Amino acid sequence: MTVLRELGGRRRASREKENLAAYLFLAPWLLGLLLITIGPIVASLYLSFTNYNLLQPARWIGFENFSRMLSDERLHNALRVTFTYVLVSVPVQLALALLLAVVLDRGVRGMAFYRSIFYLPSLLGTSVAIAILWKRVFGSDGLVNQALALVGVQGQSWISEPGTALSTLIVLNVWTFGAPMVIFLAGLRQIPTMFYEAAAVDGAGRVRQFFSVTLPLLTPIIFFNLVLQIIHAFQSFTQAFVVSGGTGGPADSTMFYTLYLYNRGFGNFDMGYASAMAWVLLVIIAGFTAVNFLAARYWVFYDD
Q: Which regions of the chain does DSSP assign to beta strands (E)?
């Protein structure tokens, strides 16, 4: 019995040492989680109920920041701009990504090269350099107007006109279709060929196979990309900030919600109001995500 107790004690000591080593390795991540993620989240929740300008102590004002949003016309416009951006750019981007994924899945020669080229905009699309390039492309003397001049069409400064400024940012977001395209391509590779063979035996052509076989079996991937891209679109900031110079463009036509939040927090030093806006954005994104999950049961097909 004494020997068994000694063996048990040694095993417990060994497990405790292993646990201690594991916690030591996890310590940097846990500290980052507490200090960089959870800490600022809790602080912003508190600040959303205060009047805080970075220079003076925060003063508790309750729900006043949220009630001020009801009469903030620039906030309402920022919501309209952001909703338009999300509801237009995300479906078009996913449709283009799916189309190119289907084309590449047909066994195009040099597919690895094309896949890399198409994915490149997703890596660069949210960078400052690409946003500056986009500003040059759609400027008064940019590439778009130079191309139009070749066919005798007089161009304009597309980013300086309220009617077209937002469209240029929508095109920029659609252009970054590489990430969802790669995910679609991986999903297409997982569809068993026997379904296409059975459809071909029944006389289904390419179009019929796409709508009757490819789309139903690809709906989980479509749902995954849809949720990710909606969240990403609501968080868009760099493009609007660089293209508009941080002002929101002509007549606030590119004043995204995130850009207005930034201007209120770091431009007007109204950190309490900006924190409240951040939590409203969180609720909006959570609402869209919840609606997608609730609607998914009616159109997402799982083979199990």
A: 50-51, 59-60
